[in-house]
Description:
The structure holds two protein chains of two kinds. Chain A is mainly alpha-helical.
Amino acid sequence: MAAYRFSPSIGVAAMLLALAAFTPARAADETPPLPHQQWSFDGVFGTYDRASLQRGFQVYKQVCSACHPVKHLHFGDLAALGYTPGEIKAIAASDQVTDGPNDQGQMFQRPGRPSDPIPGPFPNDQAARAAEGGALPPDLSMIVKARDGGPDYVYALLNGFKPPPAGFKVPPGRYYNEYFPGHLIAMPPPLSDGAVKYADGTKATVPQMAHDVASFLNWASEPNLDTRHRTGVKVLLFLIVAVGVFYAAKRKIWAVVH
Amino acid sequence: MADTRPGAGRRILRWIDYRLPFMALVEHELYEYPTPRNLSYWWNFGSLAGFMLIVMIGTGVFLAMQYTPSSDLAFDSVERIMRDVNYGWLMRYAHANGASMFFAIVYIHLFRGLYYGSYKRPRELVWMLGVIILLLMMATAFMGYVLPWGQMSYWAATVITNLFSAIPLVGHGIVTFLWGGFAVGDPTLHRFYALHYLLPFVIVAVVGLHMIALHTHGSNNPLGIDMKGPQDSIPFHPFYTIKDLFGLSIFLLIYAFFVFYAPNFLGDPQNYIPANPLQTPPDIVPEWYFLPFYAILRSVPDKLLGVIMLFSSILVLFVLPWLDTSPVRSARFRPVYNKVFWLLVIDVLALGYVGAHPPEGTIVTIGRIATFYYFFHFLILFPLIGWFERPRPLPTSIAAAVLGSAPLGAGSPLEKA
């Protein structure tokens, strides 16, 4: 039985392209359950740990950003990580962005400004695929919300590079990852101990960097989480009081009926 | 000289009321409106649904001010709302989770009607208008889900619009017409946006009719017997206004919990990936509130028949007032129906479970059995049970049942409240 009813042309096209696609759309059930990490932003009172976010941004900047864009972030957003306006200006200015057209009708490069979107490593998806052996490194500014398991998935994936089990063939340009659906990922293991030198002196182990960058990416996906949690506490407290008030009023008004 | 005339505000209201009897209507339909004195908390869900309709329109209007219905910009414009628009995240999460809350409320409301026989004479039209509201809600929710233009949006639109291709001869023409092209694309998104904005106001109109029909004979009640006199009823205000407010505050607690602490729990992560016509997601799963219907669709091995069954599963509700042959409304007095009712609840939950899982192995079998039972319940059991069941004796009046031996006891001073 066909589970989904497409018109034949789309069905065929989709099937061909699914075959050619980077992500094998199967075997998700073979991945082990994600180990749950302690995140500072979990729970009703959870907030982002800014030191961890800054370290995570450093990992993103020095490792991930070689291939992955964060399309939805602007330099100015980094203020939420605790950077001062001066620091943000410096971070922005260290990147070249394309602007224009100018009076001569030419596009030109200039140092970034806080109001600019953070530029990605490639001008477009086609360029990214061409550089990465056909695989498209996904945008990371939504990755935590776009994957089951959220930050736990990102953490597990970054720690999930293992030698393949006996008999599991890994084609060239692919790597075995325990947590990736289908286990064959086009991304080489991105982290190794000491891959970055943390400005705050934290020891840069793979689990530490994975934790920091997953926190950073959670912030990138959900930058309003702190406000949301804080507002939520107030709203819930207000509503709990409202429940009490309405319950008392209901009892009083209905007393004459019962 | 003392001015004994009423205050200016009251005089203005009187002036208006003489020409447009709006206050008189409110007075009549809200303040005096005689309501059975024994309504349980299951009767809160009608006003809750009305509240959610207002919340959805309210949040939706603000979202519409920032959203761009073009296939190139839709996804990014939603992200812009989430990140850069003041309280945009609150509006969007309230709207997205609000859809789930709205359906949960309406489904409880519907099952309450099923249990207490609220669809029976003389409330058949109240019920049928309710089914129309449900259909409109489904269309609205489906089109709203397409608007963020994520992977699930795109593929849900593809799957659902393709249902119409099952129609013989003209099916493919209809699908092309719906799409405004040869695949789901920019014209589809634009028209879905226009209709998503239009349909809620159609719902408001049908809710108006639902209310008029309801207020003609008044609410049903847990006993399912008619109000026979003033001792059976209490004015809607303040008794049910406060009871509804109390229920509303508890509901808001649940709703707020989702919005602030689990805003994506009911959604699919796939929809945070921009729509890609060249790549199908691993599983195309609708939102939870469509899962039972999706299961029915997939349980039928024939495409056309599957679509017919899908639509029939709602349409059968239209004729329910005539399928149910029992003269007794409330399941409390129906010793067989009050048990069989729960089989339908379990059946619909089973269908929901089936709809959420890939159709393989036992899932297919469970789906087929549950689909068969769904129609069996409505088309066979409803007429049959009413026919052979011996209902328990009904109480003589609501007051007699609620107040026992003192029908005109403590409640009587209220009749003029």
